[in-house]
Amino acid sequence: MSLKITLYISLCLFYSAVFSQETPKSYTLNDCIALALENNLDLKASMLSANTAKINFQQSKMNILPGLNGNYNIGVNNGRSIDPFTNDFIDQELTFSNARLNLDATIFNGFRLLNTIKQQRLNNKASKMEIEDVKQTLALNVTLTYLQVLNARAILELTKKRIGTTEKQYKRQENLFNEEVGNPADFADIKGQKTIDETNILMAESALKNAKLSLMQLLNLDSDIDIKTEGILLDFELYKLSSEAVYNDALNNLATFKARELRLEASKKGVSVAKAQFTPEVSFFGQLNTNYSSVAETFTETNTSLVETGDFVIVNNQEIPVQTNQTQFEGKPIGYEDQFDNNLNTVIGLSVQIPLFNGFRAKNNVALEKIKVEESLVELDRTEQQIKNAIEQVYFDMQNAFKRHNSLLKQVEAFQESFRVNEIRFNNGASNFLSYITSKNNLENAKTNLTNAKYEYLLRVKVLEFYRGNVL
């Protein structure tokens, strides 16, 4: 009973360990591209730059609106000062406060604001095109790396089939060796060939892992993945378009060209913005002001009384003092709100700033903006030349890969027949091992070269389609 329980527990632990291992998730090419567009950090950085350009464009439009700003302060002054209510000098503690509302509106500044809006609009569009460029390039890199994984996997499958044939011959030669029949050197040679095939498997597995790692890095994943061939056209025929046709499509469809052209137009608007520094700037301004003073008072008449003036008149040789009626007042502090309401005043006017001399700053700024135009033009020309050269090189490589593939197809057919005959002759003792193994290696190498040529051609076709503006 205890033995059954032990076996049962052991089986449970075994199956638990087996099924607890994570099976790599399978991805189609479209899945990989979608993941890359979602996770790739370079694309996220490009999107942040585009958001900055969008905000700059929005702000350039808002700069046309008038500026309205308020100012308020309150404080205490001790000692000699000027009463803000009466403008008299006083020597006492004073609590003061004032408030101001400023309005400033640009009427004309040489169309600087309008040209800045146009420039930022072009920069915003260029940023969007640059995002598309990053997306297109990322999708291309994912596609090429995906094909490299498929190629490495196909090579691994061929290598495993190769060692399968070797192992069959190894068992046959081992039996002959044990029976002391045939040439003992043949058994030693097949053992050496088996180790070569095993090494080739290790190398193929390493190449597959490296290709998968490159793909995982593009997708920003840290777990192993498996791929499907859905969405990949592995059968092919000779590419029909010419390199000139591909280049013309690239000029019309590739996002990088559109981005460069927009940057060029934006730099031209920058010259117009800089030229506005030579023109006068006319603006409208307005102010609303008020203030408060703690010593401000209102006086109310309360009584009158006769008081001597200090003068006198002589009547009948008698000095009679002169008196006058003096009004008596009672002071009452003016409230905070009442002062702010009573002391309101407004100012409106026009301001004209005329540039006379600024150390040639305006002239040099225009010169710098013109240099930026030339730089943008050179960058556009360089991009066009680089893309044209790249298309011609890829097109040349694509044609060579196609020719090599067709040649290797014939080579595989010839070596298959050669190996079939040599295998029969070797098994019947009519041929030596050297002829057999040479024929076998020729066939396996031709199959490997055929697979490499096939995927090399597909890679070049994908690149050409990318330049035409087709991601897949």
Please provide the count of β strands.
Answer: 10
Report the β-strand fraction as a percent range.
Answer: 15-25%
Task: Label the structural class.
Answer: alpha+beta
Average pLDDT number: 85
Rg over CA atoms: 46 Å
Q: How far apart are the first and last residues' alpha carbons, in Å?
A: 63 Å
Strand sequence of the main sheet, in spatial order? 2-5-7-10
Tell me the number of helical segments per DSSP (H or I, 4 or more residues long).
10
The H/E string reads HEHHEEEEHHEHHEEEHEHH
Principal-axes geometry comes out as elongated
Helix share, percent: 55-70%
Please summarize the sheet with the most strands: 4 strands, antiparallel
Low-confidence segments, ≥5 residues, pLDDT <50? 1-21
How does this structure look, described?
The protein has 472 residues and is α+β, with helices and mostly antiparallel strands. Helices cover 63% and strands 20% of the residues. The chain is built from ten helices and ten strands. It has helices at residues 2-20, 29-39, 41-62, 112-178, 184-219, 243-253, 255-275, 336-342, 361-427, 433-467, and strands at 25-27, 67-77, 80-82, 89-91, 94-108, 225-227, 281-293, 297-315, 318-333, 345-353. The protein has a four-stranded antiparallel beta sheet with strand order 2-5-7-10, covered by helices on one side. Helix 2 (29-39) crosses helix 4 (112-178) and helix 4 (112-178) runs antiparallel to helix 7 (255-275). The longest helix is centred in the N-terminal third of the chain and has 67 residues, at 112-178. It is elongated.
